[in-house]
Write a structure and sequence with these properties.
Elements: E1 2-8, E2 11-16, E3 28-37, H1 39-46, E4 56-57, E5 62-69, E6 81-84, H2 94-97, E7 135-138, H3 141-144, E8 145-147, H4 154-158, H5 163-173, E9 181-185, H6 189-200, E10 205-210, H7 213-221, E11 225-228, H8 234-241, E12 247-252, H9 264-267, H10 274-284, H11 303-311, E13 312-320, H12 333-338, E14 342-345, H13 350-362, E15 374-375, H14 381-389, E16 398-401
Parallel strand pairs: 9-10, 9-12, 10-11, 12-13, 13-14, 15-16
Antiparallel strand pairs: 1-2, 1-4, 3-5, 3-7, 3-16, 5-6, 6-8
Helix pairs in contact: 5-6, 5-13, 8-11
Length: 402
């Protein structure tokens, strides 16, 4: 089979690999019909998610058809269409039963304290080969797979594999409720999904900060209020738009690869100096490209976290769904304590949200396909990765029919 394989920082290839096989009674094999490229994948390639094992298949979003099931998989049969939850979970441990499937005690082979196991990640997550491939082995298939309702297309279902539930989870972490003013940092596809989720969870008003015009235009199309950090200071603007109070809730959908503003008042009023950001950058990605060109590591790793604590109202709440590697330890704790902020963060508990969101999509409550901006063929996936990494116009979300 053909698959996108990680060989080193800045080195991914389309390789020919042997087809996967059933390894455990709880496994299933699926033929992948649609995969996708996610910003999290870029963290692996840029080196801001350390510990990748050479030879690991990338990707954690897929829709497919079941080819074979292990003897312990009772709820699925050959030929059924399924969406793959990006995080792997057993379904029977105490964490899974409580809905915290991203912290499953069983799925991660590194042990209960290792945390989330997900497809295509570093050694600390398994590693488990990812889903940018023609076929894939799905561990703990009974809880990691969800049937696709009749009438839901592959394009709709692929958006419920990771990005839509992650956006929904971000709004839940931020404690969005009826009447809130919500600020979303980052207008990538997860940020777009967080905006859609915030509105459906009761937000009266949604503001969004980004520096890429076409992403801000996409946010405006769903009635969010765009703030371009290359033209204005986002913290000052949020306070101005909220009568000096700040946003009730903030969702950080950026993470460690944040980019500093290149112009405007925000560039002259950074929360810390550029030398401090450079130290953060080299600590977060010691093998990454910090100069110029392809696979460039973000030059302001803690910027979104710092803006979040400044732009939220006193006693407000922040939900963090942007990716920060486990070793990253730069956070504005003093401001958080001084302003009585509530901060919640984590990896999405996918299985908790995927079934309900698929039903919302099926009945037309949410149309996540409006955030798909590219369809790429498998043979051109490396080119697609590179264009997405460069943040080119029109590369918000790329779906790959396999």
């Amino acid at each position: 089979m053909k698959a996108i394989v990680w060989h080193g920082v800045g080195d991914i290839r389309l390789d020919d690999l042997a087809d996967p096989k059933i390894e455990e009674p709880t496994d299933a094999l699926i033929q992948i019909t649609t995969a996708a490229i996610c910003g999290t994948d870029l963290h692996m390639v840029r080196g801001t998610m350390a510990g990748m094992r050479p030879g690991t298949v990338l990707g954690h979003e897929a829709v497919g058809v079941i080819l074979e099931t292990g003897s312990a998989v009772r709820g699925f049969v050959k030929g059924e269409r399924v969406v793959v939850c990006s995080t792997i979970s057993c379904g029977y441990c105490a964490y899974c039963r409580s809905g915290y499937t991203a912290q499953c005690d069983v799925a991660n082979p590194n042990g209960p304290q290792a945390g989330t196991s997900f497809f295509g990640g570093p050694e600390s997550t398994g590693p488990v080969d990812g889903l940018q491939a023609e076929t894939a082995r799905i561990p703990y298939a009974a809880n990691t797979l969800v049937k696709v309702p009749d009438g839901v297309t592959d394009d709709q279902a692929i958006m419920v594999s990771d990005v839509l539930p992650t956006g929904w989870f971000g709004a839940r972490l931020a404690q969005v409720s009826k009447g809130d003013t919500v600020l979303v940092l980052g207008a990538g596809v997860v940020g777009q999904c967080a905006m859609a989720a915030a509105k459906r969870q009761g937000a009266a008003r949604v503001l969004v900060v980004d520096g890429i015009p076409d992403r801000l235009a996409k946010a405006r199309a769903q009635n969010a209020e765009p703030i371009d950090f290359n033209a204005e200071d986002p913290v000052a603007t949020v306070r101005e738009l909220t009568g000096g109070i700040g946003a009730d809730r903030v969702i950080d959908a950026v993470g460690v690869d944040a980019r500093a503003p290149k112009s405007g008042p925000a560039a002259d009023n950074l929360p810390v100096d550029t030398e401090a950001f450079e130290r953060e950058r080299r600590s977060a990605a010691p093998e990454g490209n910090t100069d110029d060109g392809q696979w460039l590591v973000g030059d302001a790793p803690s910027l979104a976290a710092r803006w979040a604590t400044q732009a939220v109202a006193k006693a407000g709440s922040i939900g963090i769904i942007g990716v920060y590697p486990p070793e990253f330890d730069r956070y504005p704790l003093g401001a958080t304590v001084n302003r009585n902020l509530t901060v919640q963060a984590g990896n999405c508990n996918h299985h908790r949200y995927v079934p309900g969101l698929l039903n919302r999509v099926a009945r037309g409550d949410i149309d996540p396909t409006r955030f798909i901006t590219q369809h790429a063929e498998p043979l051109s996936m490396i080119d697609a990765y590179e264009a997405f990494d460069r943040r080119e116009d029109g590369w918000l979300k790329t779906v790959v029919p396999m």
